[in-house]
Sequence to fold (241 residues):
Amino acid sequence: MRFSYFFLPLLLLFARLSSAQQADTTIIRYTGQLAGQYTSGGVNRTLFSTSHSVTFLRGLHFGAPVTGSFTFGKQEGLLKEREFLLNSTPYYWKGRFRFYGIGGYERSNLRGIDNRYQIGAGPGWAIYTDSLNREVAVSNLIIREATYFQDGSSRTVARNSTRLKVAYTYRVFSLNSITFYQPNLQNFEDYRVTQQSSLALRFTPRFAITGTYTYTFENRILEGKPTDNTNVTVGVSFSTK
Fold:
């Protein structure tokens, strides 16, 4: 019931947008990544992460990326990270203008979150874009968020979500970076920052070696949980054209 309450309005909105587009071939693009980290000695740590993205392109102006990631990590033999994130960000574009929707679900052992649901919408603008899929874009969405914590407490807030996206390719190298700043609209001292950058060295048209940097900060979490977390991983990725 919670899932349908948060996601049904979003699906209805973008069903209308997609039906308004001209008939055209549907294009599906997929990217998957596996990465990990192992250290021993002063600090014993193991970390495994995997992320997947499927983008549906339909008509001349409609797209629907769906992304998911899972991270599992232990430190000194104790479970620290068991993070799951699923997002869908359907969008309508015309020229440099974008209009986005967002529906998200999250679980986080690191921050003590049993379930978190998000739904929202807002405009965006491509500052730079070219035929090689290089892009610098910003967006600003209003989202409604419900969080259910492991201690049984919960809260529902409205946030402003500002995103900066950078995608750049040069020969066999590609850089993708996404930064989010998400303050609570009723209390700007309650905010989240998320940043992920991935540098890939492509050695075939579909396979690449990747290095990924991820940083998260959230100042309203359960007592005893860390407010920020940083991960650096190296792995491989596969993508279709």
Summary: The radius of gyration is 19 Å. Residues 2-19 form the longest helix (18 residues). The first strand starts at residue 27 and ends at 39.
